[in-house]
Each structure stands twice: as structure tokens, then as C-alpha cells.
């Protein structure tokens, strides 16, 4: 366990080592994170909206926000992982910022390097210094959000609905609730919800829901010894046989084969 659990810095290249599915599948974390991409490009889905990312992009993802991250070996950067109980002031909504000013890019690089030195060292008052560095990172982020130009072309109403659906899925994906049920809760038709999800992230509503369930199934299979039938029940599947069929359709493996492989 880290001596300084308030914040961690993880190279983006390490996020996929050994378990690429943990990054590319729909999932959420119990703590906020800030992705700082310094080289490479790809696509990232946050809160039901997919956007391309490139060099010098800062992507803030609040805790318990459904997301998936397309990353290759050509992508470099740092993931700033805050703690779930951090006192650092951070935004409550996702943000995707394209940092074009070289001085601002350098400013953030210096912040990360200074924080890394404190994390690696054993200097007096290191814990307090780390907390202050985390605060400076949050200030940098807040200022960049204030300076940001609006570059999202998706209509605001579509983004709100997609974000609402993603947030609702994150809360209730362990139940047997269907897309029709989610649409009813959101006050729209299943057809409209599916059309909006397709527009905002290139996936249908049912694909997003299924991806989130299967992502959690993979995590439970890899990280726990829970029986397959127990996992099926915990995720709201009608039966273990149906869960096995859906899992195989999404991953190309049976749950037990996947568990043995990892």
C-alpha cells in the first residue's frame, strides 16, 4: 500500500499491462482521475459521449462515472489518480480539455514532476507537500476549464440525455432493468434513447448497458472466487446459462475459460 494514498501518478502505458480489458471496457472508479496525454491519439467515452483525444489533452473523470478508454502502445501520458476521500476540490462533471498553449502545458508538466519527487522521496512533511501539490493540480484544472473553448459539436440536449443514461446505468446495472426501463425513467422512448446514444458515442443503449455488465463480470471473475451462478445473479441476469451465453457473445470466451486465462 502507498504511504501517500491521497494521490497516485501512473504512466498511461502501465494501465493496460496484462489486462487491456480493464481499460477498454466500460467501467468506473470510486475515485476521480485526470488523464494527461502527452503523445498519441485514440478515442475515449465518458458519460455516454465519445470524443477523440490527442497530444496535450487533459481529461477529467469524476468518481463513479462510466467510461472506456481506447489506448495503444503509441499513447503516452500520466493518469493522476485521486483518492476516494480526498479533500482536494475537483469538478463534479467530466471535462475534456485540449491544451494548446505551450506555457500552460509546461506548467502542468512541472506540477507532475514536483509531485512525483515528493511521492518518491522521504522528505520531512512530504504528506503535507503532496496534499498541496494535489491542490495546485486542482487549481490548474479549474483555470483550464474556465479558459476552455467549447469544442463539442453534439447538441446539448443529446449530451444531457446520454450523460443521464450513463449515470443511471452506473447506479443500476446490477439489476435486471432493461433499456425500456431506463428510457421510462428518463422520460423518453427506447428508440429515442438508442438514437441519441448512437449519436453521442457510436453505441446503442443496449450495447452500453451490456458492456457495463460484462465489464463488471470480468472484474468479478478475475478478482474474486465467486461462482459463475452467483455472479450472474449479482448482475441481474435471468439465469447462469443466459449470462454464459451473453458473456461468450461479447468476449468470445465462456466465463470459466476467461477466469482460467487471467
UniProtKB/TrEMBL annotation:
<keyword id="KW-0804">Transcription</keyword>
<dbReference type="GO" id="GO:0043565">
    <property type="term" value="F:sequence-specific DNA binding"/>
</dbReference>
<keyword id="KW-0238">DNA-binding</keyword>
<dbReference type="Pfam" id="PF12833">
    <property type="entry name" value="HTH_18"/>
</dbReference>
<dbReference type="InterPro" id="IPR011051">
    <property type="entry name" value="RmlC_Cupin_sf"/>
</dbReference>
<dbReference type="InterPro" id="IPR014710">
    <property type="entry name" value="RmlC-like_jellyroll"/>
</dbReference>
<dbReference type="InterPro" id="IPR018060">
    <property type="entry name" value="HTH_AraC"/>
</dbReference>
<feature type="domain" description="HTH araC/xylS-type">
    <location>
        <begin position="163"/>
        <end position="261"/>
    </location>
</feature>
<dbReference type="InterPro" id="IPR009057">
    <property type="entry name" value="Homeodomain-like_sf"/>
</dbReference>
<keyword id="KW-0805">Transcription regulation</keyword>
<dbReference type="GO" id="GO:0003700">
    <property type="term" value="F:DNA-binding transcription factor activity"/>
</dbReference>
<protein>
    <submittedName>
        <fullName>AraC-like DNA-binding protein</fullName>
    </submittedName>
</protein>
